[in-house]
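Q: Could you fold this chain for me?
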Amino acid sequence: MKIFLDTANLDEIRWALSTGLIDGVTTNPALLARECVERDHHEHVAELCRMLPGPVTVQVISVDVEGMYREGKDLARLSDRVVVEVPMIEEGLVAARRLVSDGVAINVTLVFSASQALLAARTGASYVSPFVGRLDDAGTDGIAVVADIRRIFDHAGVECEVLASSIRTPRRFVDAARTGADVVAVPPAVLRAALVHPLTDLGLDHFLHEWSRQIVKARTGHA
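A: Sure. Below is the predicted structure, expressed as structure tokens.
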């Protein structure tokens, strides 16, 4: 399973790269807008691609076929690491198919059902992104949807990766991995939370305390 960091923040990405934990990055228009107040977002995406060893997913803003196709081509020219995100709407699927025929890697985003995922995969998309957290918010088990997609893709031999998105807790991160997601996209806060456990800290404190106690004992001859 691969881990993508869900952010466009350069400092957060540098931190995650230093840990060696991530394989790529997912962004969306809101994340990019937050980081691109004083620079063109294409420049920012190009910098992300220079930093990362793997995919950088970037969503188009248009919702019509020609607009999405044009934006997708422009984004793909920035780097061969760019994966163009298109929304799971009819126009998005038409644009996706055209972009795929031009050799552009596609992630169909805002997927909320197994049927949507199956139709999205038929475009030749490299990824489909079910939104776990938003499904949970709506009263549907987001992980169950990921599981359905996984079973269908495996049964039908669909060559498209399941990119579990909208992951909000370490528990859902583990759930997505256990369910068989090919990729899990996590915000920096969730990745940091997944790294820690209070018992780890307590255990480390205990080991260090015992080490110090034994050193003092050995040097002084007293317990």
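A (continued): The longest helix spans residues 198-220.
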